[in-house]
Amino acid sequence: MKALIKWKKSIRDIERVTKLKKPTLTLSLNKMKKEGLTKPLGIRRSGKWALTKKGRAVVVMRIATV
Question: pTM higher than 0.85 for the full model?
Answer without folding.
Answer: no
